[in-house]
Amino acid sequence: xxxxxxxxxxxxxxxxxxxxxxxxxxxxxxxxxxxxxxxxxxxxxxxxxxxxxxxxxxxxxxxxxxxxxxxxxxxxxxxxxxxxxxxxxxxxxxxxxxxxxxxxxxxxxxxxxxxxxxxxxxxxxxxxxxxxxxxxxxxxxxxxxxxxxxxxxxxxxxxxxxxxxxxxxxxxxxxxxxxxxxxxxxxxxxxxxxxxxxxxxxxxxxxxxxxxxxxxxxxxxxxxxxxxxxxxxxxxxxxxxxxxxxxxxxxxxxxxxxxxxxxxxxxxxxxxxxxxxxxxxxxxxxxxxxxxxxxxxxxxxxxxxxxxxxxxxxxxxxxxxxxxxxxxxxxxxxxxxxxxxxxxxxxxxxxxxxxxxxxxxxxxxxxxxxxxxxxxxxxxxxxxxxxxxxxxxxxxxxxxxxxxxxxxxxxxxxxxxxxxxxxxxxxxxxxxxxxxxxxxxxxxxxxxxxxxxxxxxxxxxxxxxxxxxxxxxxxxxxxxxxxxxxxxxxxxxxxxxxxxxxxxxxxxxxxxxxxxxxxxxxxxxxxxxxxxxxxxxxxxxxxxxxxxxxxxxxxxxxxxxxxxxxxxxxxxxxxxxxxxxxxxxxxxxxxxxxxxxxxxxxxxxxxxxxxxxxxxxxxxxxxxxxxxxxxxxxxxxxxxxxxxxxxxxxxxxxxxxxxxxxxxxxxxxxxxxxxxxxxxxxxxxxxxxxxxxxxxxxxxxxxxxxxxxxxxxxxxxxxxxxxxxxxxxxxxxxxxxxxxxxxxxxxxxxxxxxxxxxxxxxxxxxxxxxxxxxxxxxxxxxxxxxxxxxxxxxxxxxxxxxxxxxxxxxxxxxxxxxxxxxxxxxxxxxxxxxxxxxxxxxxxxxxxxxxxxxxxxxxxxxxxxxxxxxxxxxxxxxxxxxxxxxxxxxxxxxxxxxxxxxxxxxxxxxxxxxxxxxxxxxxxxxxxxxxxxxxxxxxxxxxxxxxxxxxxxxxxxxxxxxxxxxxxxxxxxxxxxxxxxxxxxxxxxxxxxxxxxxxxxxxxxxxxxxxxxxxxxxxxxxxxxxxxxxxxxxxxxxxxxxxxxxxxxxxxxxxxxxxxxxxxxxxxxxxxxxxxxxxxxxxxxxxxxxxxxxxxxxxxxxxxxxxxxxxx
Length: 1112
Known about the structure:
Distance between the termini: 79 Å
Protein name: ArnT-like N-terminal domain-containing protein
Organism: Desulfarculus baarsii (strain ATCC 33931 / DSM 2075 / LMG 7858 / VKM B-1802 / 2st14)
Number of strands: 36
GO molecular function: mannosyltransferase activity
Strand content: 15-25%
InterPro entries: ArnT-like_N, TPR-like_helical_dom_sf
Number of helices: 33
Membrane topology: Multi-pass membrane protein
Low-confidence stretches: 1-7, 34-39, 252-257, 479-490
């Protein structure tokens, strides 16, 4: 620490710039994760490095080997350190077990060479121009240059070559300033190593020659030394550098690599030299404009102009140093334009700070000069730093090729045909084949083939027109507004725009459906979700949280996101504490009780700010067993879920936004109308319904027709015309297929387990048949689902064979039968398919498929589980009919109201919220008998809902059913406390009051107390109710569950009232005196804490005092 404080400020600044440049180059260095588009610049380089070892230190026939040898040395040292550390920690038995990937070792050394350019630029500028400010400005511009940061992430020779050229230039500068044998030898050694880094480095030989000429011109030594001795020393240093850098050069017969002589074996470009130079110059100009190099070009030209009018030969040497490499790079035909820019930019930057330093020197005081230099440095470097941070973040994220590979694995069957276009790796998918030129959309659709396309491949123009794009992966298509070039192209070879096309005609989805899609892989720790791919993609944003491991989903949107919903479902048996975080900083911790669902709607926060449209969401368990966390951004999905949990304000807000984004969406309109009518906003609901109905019935008529028919080919075609979805692609994205291929062939075993991708099962054989059970790995979403069972054709099945297929759902609340259907011999014999529809009441249900047979064993060939589209449409229509009925009822159109409410019940017989308004509509329509029947059904359904019972009583009176009204009045009286005492507890319960017939009791006697509890929300856990008698230095405890354990609080619905009649048995040894009757809620199993009163009597406390009891 003392050494740091003793350093000069300029050295501290230089050290900080070096560290900053190194951090920018190291961030995201492990990009690619094993997959990259082809051709890939790192592939050849790391394979060379992989072949080097202590026993084979040189690569046969390779001339430019210096950098590879240096990288191999660094890799070997790192492996020794890693192996020794593992050996000391007991994680390895030998030092050789410490393995460092060759790709990472090479990239790390490239990043180190790139960061070293900053101090080299400082030394060159300070020595040539005599200005510390010029040197620091040059170092700062190199440290944060987006172009140099980008290219330092590749294991290529361009960045090391530029560093070695700068080292040669520094040695030549030292030779010109202090000529001697040592400086000549150092310059020769540096030039030799530069030439063996990349043949283009041969142009660096011009620097020592110019330095020697400058020494001769200045007559700093005798001509004999300048012309003979020093050149000989330089030649010896050059030879040593060449031999060290390229040991295979002493065996020229074996040399197969490209040597420096290759620069003179240049053939004329096909388009001619002038056209070639113009084209390459235009490419370089475009690249510098995109990557922030034009300001460096302008400053370099200014420095060149200033050096011409001054007698400063050393400055002229530094200023003109980039010219030979610029000319050679533009003339080269086998060198990428990025490599030319990477070689030219740091050399030009070394002199770019000089004009700015001269401006600052004109200020009167030193403090002003320093402040001006600092201001200019910030002005020049803030925007490049901002963009470099964004570029480094893009490298750090999952690249687009890996994201496309994950999407293909999640959404395509293993046997789906896939054609990979130019620039796409053929190993990206199991069935991938190279795409032939001249592809036709009709041929792809006919063969049912998908197409993978790289928009930035060198020989890719455009995919066949007319194909349906199902996924697009464009990570770096949105720069920050602070960027100098908002439309900048992606860096080559990294994150190309990958697109996937399906075998269907292109069509826009005009009426999106609010579908809860099945999960792809909930065990994945990290995934980048491209939100625009949700139309034909499965749900990849669901995570299963276990342990304390962070799991993260990064949302990449084509535009800004307003809100993100995180749905938490506790799948374990313990209280779960979940930490949710967006970006850096502290996260928010949420408690979720077993079996509870928690919906968190948070403001979307982009991170980092320099990369627009990137929204990271990460979560982990701090306590608990397992939590299913689902992330949503679509307002249609968020609004649907809010409506189903009866959060009407959120439902209205998000559904209105969804309808504004897609005015033609029937789902958004129907669900919004349902929310508005529930809120009593009938005028707004009427406007929405008018748009849905239209003059001729509108889309509502078409959806009602779909709901009335069974799904078949014509049904799917009508759905396509109505919504814009391609039916085949939609069904593919809404389910999982499992290849079963029958039971295992183990006839002697009574029980045989088996498994496959995504499932496990067991076959139990019995003398009369067998039972097949299959458990699926991926959890199901809430809502309507279906199972398709495809039987293998079995003509040998006996005629008397009979069986049964069942679908079971398992969750934290237990198991339940979701669907069942009989299977006959004809279905098995002919290899037919059978469909079972079911409804998952909660997200996260794991499915079990049971198939029982008597008289033989059925052979199940294939199993498919997915979303039931017909059931989904019916579920949306119930809200549409409900809203339509309530509007008609309010407008006095009673016949239409009856028709609408009955249609709602036909869509979902369990949609009991329409029973009361249906009874009213029937009554007003003059159908008294039917009204009474529906009213009695509603009375049974809402037997513990005083608000609804009161309305039913008024309805019975209007129907002149005195006995029914009296019966309801009796129920109301039973749920009405004689002593009102309202206290609202957190956790979902309100104490309405109590009955206390007497307040005096004797020891050993009984005290009767009735409590009245109303649910204002569904309680998250089954709280204990504590009742205490406190007084005379003693607490008499009467803890119990609600209604003596007969009612589970988690089953309560909002508005439900529970009366519990309780007898307090007073101990015989109770002392006479005054006792307080105290009541409260507490959770002894998970938190050990009481529920606080949030409103009413005892607000803020964790208990309420009801009365004073006298024991005498």
